[in-house]
Amino acid sequence: MTNYLAVERALRSAAPHALLEAVRNTLVQFYGALAVDLLMADYSLRVLQPVTALPHTGQGLAVHASVPGRAFGSQQPQLEAVPGRDGGPDRVVAHLPVTVRGDRLGVLSVELPADSAAAPLVAELGQVASLLGHEIVVAERDTDVYLQARRVARLTLAAEMQWQLLPGRSCARAEYAIGAQLDPAYAIYGDNFDWATTAETLTLTITNGMGEGISASLLTNLAVNALRNARRAGIGIADQAALADQALYAQHRGKVHVASLLMCFELATGQVTAVDAGSPQLWRLRDKAAERIEFDAQLPLGMFEETAYAAQSFRVLPGDRLVCVSDGVYDTSSPAGERYGERALARAIVASALVPAADVPGAILRELADYRAADAADDALVVCLDWTGRNESGTAR
User: Fold this and answer.
1) pLDDT tier at 136 (50, 70, 90 boundaries)?
2) PANTHER family given for it (predicted)?
3) In the structure, what pLDDT confidence band is assigned to residue 114 with cuts at 50, 70 and 90?
4) pLDDT of 124 higher than 80
5) CA 354 vs CA 107, 184, 288, 346, 349: distances in Å
6) pLDDT for 94-113, tens place per residue?
7) Are 147 and 49 in contact (CB under 8 A)?
8) Among 146, 286, 339, 385, which has the highest number of CB atoms less than 10 A from its own CB?
9) Nearest-CA neighbor of 282 among 352, 381, 172, 169?
């Protein structure tokens, strides 16, 4: 653990752009590492990009066809044997997930002599990878290095605005796990998701700004920040919707609107209050059966002045999975003009039942991409929440 503390001191004192250099130097010095690389998951979650000289990164690795990808997907260390250099001793590369509170950032790959890669060392290096993840999240306030490393292509301006607005792509707590993804990742504009947690609640919101390109992104940005402002004032979700509605109407006078679904979960009981203000759909997977949870439809945010919103209630049980999708999923069409529809969506939800929450959005969006036309006009959003809940004593299951 003394070696771990040395790594921690080096990371905390490193310049924001130099975290990889700091962790590489200390792992070589204190752990006998032969090589150290950091791979960041790209925006589509399909490629792991090595952090190298900017503005370009090295050749990416496919998440679904590589050993580092298995570490990223399973969230477990993966060991890869490699032949020695110049006929020297065999070596092992430990691929370690870089994850912060369930948000999967990438993989730290550490090459070691084969005879030193014992389980205790790999476990300690896993802690180093977790520490590196926390430092990256903090460093991203002051450097673009890690954001640039996530790109296999240039983001549109609208997509840049949207990704900066998001809380993350996944998160986990004892009571729940969330995964979310947008598609096309490099050219999104109106779809968005947001979440926030307290000791007793989880608030989850889905928004879809009307329009295309930067105008849709600006509209969604206003809506999300209005909802956050109301939420941080400590008021309920019905009033959050009402205040966001007023902010949007004051700015645009009803010419554009934002479809939204707001939900607040009580962590102790699984009781959920919801406001359905538009087109996002909510589905529940329980006992291997997928069914849509329908609410009384209410007006999208910003359509009319001083709209009053009413919350509805339902309950989630331990083992439930909730999947929320935008109209870019269920209302998309094949090249022949056939709608994807609810039946196909239900099949996709059931088919991904054994997939972790963080991977469900990608699985559904990949199936959708195979179905719909290549030039589909709408962006698509999928958010998955797995509910664990608490037991009768009030502790997480």
Assistant:
1) very high
2) STAGE II SPORULATION PROTEIN E, STAGE II SPORULATION PROTEIN E-RELATED
3) confident
4) yes
5) 23, 25, 10, 15, 10
6) 999 999 999 999 999 999 99
7) no
8) 385
9) 381
Q: Please, which residues have CB within 8 angstroms of residue 28's CB and are 6 or more apart in sequence? A: 34, 36
Whole-angstrom distance, CA of residue 207 vs CA of residue 194: 8
**What is the rounded distance in angstroms from the CA atom of residue 211 to the CA atom of residue 220?**
10
Whole-number Å distance between alpha carbons of 182 and 193: 9
Using an 8 Å Cβ cutoff, are 277 and 304 in contact?
A: no
How confident is the model at residue 373, as a pLDDT?
57
Residue 126 CA to residue 276 CA, distance in Å, equals 42
Q: Does 337 have pLDDT greater than 70?
A: no
CB 388 within 8 Å of CB 176: yes
Instruction: Record the tokens describing residue 139, joined without a space.
Output: 């460093």
Q: Which helix (H) or strand (E) holds 275?
A: strand 271-277
What number is the average pLDDT over the span 298-323?
A: 96
Pairing of strands 258-266, 201-209: antiparallel
Nearest Cα to 213, choosing from 193, 245, 182, 191? Answer: 191
Determine the residue type at 236.
G
φ/ψ region of 87 (left if φ > 0, alpha if ψ in -120 to 50, else beta) reads left
Instruction: Give the helix/strand (H/E) hosting 103.
Output: strand 103-113
